[in-house]
């Protein structure tokens, strides 16, 4: 059976981008068709300046939202990364296979490091090695497919390179995984800056729709979305020339299960497009928010799911990580 692994990082509240690019597919497609693991990757949240209490709160919230989005512990494994030591154990071995040049070429590293430096802060070493930990997350489970949004493509490519290199040097140990992206919604852009990704730790809050936004907040954010002034009012799909309008068409299409090209030219004004997009997003989020509310009233259930999930995940990861320890030349403990 196909093995799937994917994760979400608790560095902010989950966004519409996370949902359309990844989580929705995990819930409605992946968990039904494969042996799937979904993880709140909390160790990754420590790579930038962070408040310990906030990371804990966001980790719990992310796990609750994954369940609210429809992940079913009867069908898949949901857990928190730091509860399973194998991720950090394997990450060190992969650091011994990766090169520093490779790490420095990662686009997300370059962007985030530049941002940290601009703010006058220093760059944590873990920000540089982050993609290696991500590779460990994936490779520990013999993963075939990694369902992610567009921004993770380079990291999954690196994961493939490390798996192949390790296998060539030390004998076949890892499955070489591949990224799987949704056709629509793989790159939802910030509503205020439609040339940048909608990210959960963005400073431009008004441009980000969060999964837990009230309908009124969703309405305000979408109605105030930047459209493409100076280029006429044609509501056409053209990512390059019309990033603002195209983003709204993409969001609307993703919500409705259609495609944005088919919506090109259907709307006569930005206002009408925005109104329909508001409705579609509010309807999309409604069941998630309702279920989230119920789950918040039952924290013991969520904790139980995470405890069982970690135990299952540990059992799946340990044999392969132990095999990697032996293959690379470490002496087995008696
Ligand atoms: P993270 O937490 O940034 O995002 C979680 C998932 O949401 C997708 N995504 C988006 N998709 C479309 N439009 C957007 N604006 C958007 N923003 C985010 C991401 O592509 C991702 O699929 N490094 C990863 C977490 C990670 C991981 C892993 C993922 C750690 N280990 C192993 C897969 C496998 C990250 O920061 O995702």
Automatic annotation (TrEMBL):
Classification via SUPFAM superfamilies: Nucleotidylyl transferase (SSF52374)
Positions of L-tryptophan binding: 137
Residue ranges annotated as motif 'KMSKS' region: 197-201
Compartment annotation: Cytoplasm
Molecular-function GO terms, alphabetical: tryptophan-tRNA ligase activity
Catalysis performed (reactions): tRNA(Trp) + L-tryptophan + ATP = L-tryptophyl-tRNA(Trp) + AMP + diphosphate + H(+)
Motif range ('HIGH' region): 10-18
Binding site for ATP: 9-11, 17-18, 149-151, 188, 197-201
Entry's EC annotation: 6.1.1.2
InterPro entries referenced in this protein's UniProt entry, alphabetically: aa-tRNA-synth_I_CS (IPR001412), aa-tRNA-synth_Ic (IPR002305), Rossmann-like_a/b/a_fold (IPR014729), Trp-tRNA-ligase (IPR002306), Trp-tRNA-ligase_bac-type (IPR024109), Trp-tRNA_synthetase (IPR050203)
PROSITE patterns, per database record: AA_TRNA_LIGASE_I (PS00178)
Record key words, sorted: Aminoacyl-tRNA synthetase, ATP-binding, Cytoplasm, Ligase, Nucleotide-binding, Protein biosynthesis
HAMAP family to which the protein is assigned, alphabetical: Trp_tRNA_synth_B
Function description: Catalyzes the attachment of tryptophan to tRNA(Trp).
Subunit annotation: Homodimer.
Family statement: Belongs to the class-I aminoacyl-tRNA synthetase family.
Protein name: Tryptophan--tRNA ligase
Organism in which the protein naturally occurs: Streptomyces lutosisoli
Highest classification ranks of the organism: Bacteria, Bacillati, Actinomycetota, Actinomycetes, Kitasatosporales
